[in-house]
Amino acid sequence: MKWAVTLVVGAAVFVFGWWLCDFPLGMETDNALSIAAIPSALVLSPLGWWAGREASAPARVIEEPSAPTPAPVDRGGQVVVGPVPRAPQHFQPPVETLRALSNVAAGSIAVVCTVTGLRGVGKTQAVGAYARQRIEDGWLVAWFPAQSESLVLAGLGELADALGLRRAGDTAELTTARVRNHLQTLREPALLVFDNVTDPAHVVPHLPATGSAQIVLTSASHAIDQLGTRVPVELFSPDTAVRFLTDSTGLPDVAGARKLARELGYLPLALAQAAARVVRIDHDYATYLRRHQSVSVDKLLTAVPGNPYPHGAAKAILLAVEPFTADETPAKLLDLLSVLSPDGVSRDLLTTESNAEADDALAALFDASLVEFAGTNNTVVVMHRLTQRAIRDRPDHDLPAALTRAGGLLRAVSRTAEQVKWKRDLGEELIRHLDALRSHAAAVDALPDEFLSLRADALYDLSEWYWHHDRPVAERILLRQALPLYRRLASAGPEQQGRLASCLHHIGTSYLNSSTPDLAAATLWQAYELRAALAATDDDEAAVLANTCAELSRALQMTSRFRESVRIAEHEVRLRRDRRSPDNDLYMGLVRLARGQAMTGEVTAAWHTALEAEELCQALADDEPRKVAWRQLHLAKVLSLCGRHDVRRAARAEAPARAALSAYRRLVDQDPRYYQANLKSAVATLVTVLERLGRHAEAAAATHRIGTDPEWQQNSPARKTASRPPKSSKTN
Fold first, then answer.
1. pLDDT digits over 76-86, tens only?
2. Are 535 and 657 contained in the same domain?
3. Has this prediction a pTM greater than 0.85?
4. What are the CA-CA distances from residue 74 to residues 70, 77, 191, 606 (Å)?
5. Which residue, 95, 160, 656, 661, could crosslink 165 as a Cys pair with Cβ 3.0–4.6 Å?
């Protein structure tokens, strides 16, 4: 309707102006039309802005956070990622904080809210309540731990996967840029939470400047206040603290609750832990107060700049921990959680040994308000940073033993291929935990190298996930992080040297698959030299050395360093014969050797090697179809290459070329997308063989009969080869 009014008014002004200039004033028609266009344009400009302006629907203001709002009917496409915290027991919603957040969200552009306050005041839980409400409203909700830049990047990568924005081969920078650009054009409501921001530089580059997303940053530091609208989270008011204690304990002693709340400084974390102990052990406020006042923490818990340590909360934490120190399983879990990442630990990792006992212990710790649960189906266990620090600072706490136990747990998990190599999220979690262990172990001289090795191994294992999911670039980035660590650890012994060689091998292979053979050859040569030295004293290294030889030979041939490739291929074939490697591996080693010999002019040696490969290929004929086709194709290529100056030898390549073409035709019928490139290669190989035999009409016919990709038929190198005038046999 607005656009209709705009067009009608604009046209009316134009017609009136033209009539006025043409008839009463007597101007020429061309001049009249030009002048009439001026007032029409002046009128259309404001009317066009008015018609194009979209009325933004304000976001719903949450007046009563405790009363859930009905969820939208259709939520099939909703995206929720990250460990959104679960509502704690007897949670008292901070009404003013939630109302402030919902009021700020009423705009139509991206807004930033900064939620700040003391540690333990309930910032995460306040924002968690807001996030849970927005999930119920059907919003896109993403929760990112933001203690470090790597955590932020990992969270953005998870959101990219959920939105389908990540592409094979993307770098982390490209992935995060795609997420930011997507959010800047988003018109649906969305909430992004960056929890526990320690440095604004970790998040600022990734914040969308436009769009409909609301961004919430939580931090104990006021350095983030300048980034957006400040929404402070204050301590409980005396009345709220008393109501929380009486609701949690069921005790009607209002005076005792008021006295205890004052002693604990009205800090929500301390109040929750005190209430849990009163219910389970002390049974009244007076008994708890006597025990609380008897705990001395002045010398034990020292303040850290920028991280104030409320002594009342510290005493409450120590009293909450006390009942679990005599029980092995809860005590072990407390030690582990106090040194692992404060951003959360997956329950699968904590319950790998004894599921039933660990689950019961976690339930008890949750009842004592020492841990919280987050994530879908409560799969993440979170211990507050204040609780972690109080546990580590206990006089009877053995920090080296806790670090060693945590390191052993992570090493055991990292050695289980089913756990890490096939689960990217768990691999990234292991790296977060190892970073936390290294930070705690800074004062323990005997431990940093151990955690250095663990982190390198975790990076290496995580790279396996990327390798098997077609992410060579991302894998290469990870291995670049692990490579310097292994270089530092190489002097520790053969095991670390073997890992360094494996790291170099995988980086080189990744370069090779990314079409950068020069870098691949340089990296694989380092792996080859290192593995050759290890194989001199360890027979088990011979098998992996042969694999490195195979990749290095490929890289050298791609860079036209054929004489070096022949030497490496001869070493590979010799190793595979000595080790009685699988015939498929030996077969491909012979093919590479024959190709290198042919390119260096060793015609006779190349032909004999090709015949040996042909004999082995015939012996392996009874196998699954894709392997048969693959072997026949490579055999045809190498026989054709060896017979490029001899028609009789070239004729020997026709049979395997036709066998490969026939096999790939059948495979394309099963999976056109996967085998199409192989089919094209088989056609090109057959065409080359027929060309060398002088049968150009058959070569053209072979190209035309492909029939599976008309567009390729028109542009393929094979067809162009088949349609060229025949060359002399010497040139061929």
1. 578 888 888 77
2. no
3. no
4. 12, 8, 18, 67
5. 160
